Amino acid sequence: xxxxxxPAAPDRESVWDYPRPPRVEATSELIVVTLGGLLxxxxxxxxxxxxxxxxxxxxxxxxxxxPGMVEPADGSAVCEYKGVADHVxxxxxxxxxxxxxxxYPTPLQGxxxxxxxxALYAGELTxxxxxxxVVPQAxxxxxxxxxxxVIGPFKGEPGTAGW
Length: 163
Description:
Elements (H helix, E strand, L loop, with lengths): L12 E2 L8 E5 L3 E5 L2 E6 L2 E5 L6 E5 L8 E10 L3 E10 L2 E9 L13 E4 L5 E4 L2 E2 L1 E2 L8 E2 L3 E2 L12
Parallel strand pairs: 1-15
Antiparallel strand pairs: 2-5, 3-4, 3-11, 5-6, 6-10, 7-8, 8-9, 9-10, 11-12, 13-14
């Protein structure tokens, strides 16, 4: 797969213009997450992490979820920039989606705004950003959300393991 960036346009962002190390920026976009028609969360108080070759990762405030919906899960991961992330599960109605997201309880310097927020994998969930549908970032490891406003190619797609 070529890693040649697609041309940016006034209404589209190229993920190849995103920085490394990643940048965190506040957004007032309307983020809505549902599962089988049940509301998981809706907020305009998100931040997004922008990193070269990755679609944005949206971090939503924990208090935007119903009490008890976000549960700790086994496992963690380490990001050289953000620190140690703990996995979380979601309890929605009678369903438990295990390890469907993560949070940084004590993020590293420069990423403190991520504390008290959770990022979700879009795979099993229906997610929208300002009413635009989200396509999950390929590969199952990364949690970026692809909307019509971002263009790639994206890390995680077949052939990108060496990027």
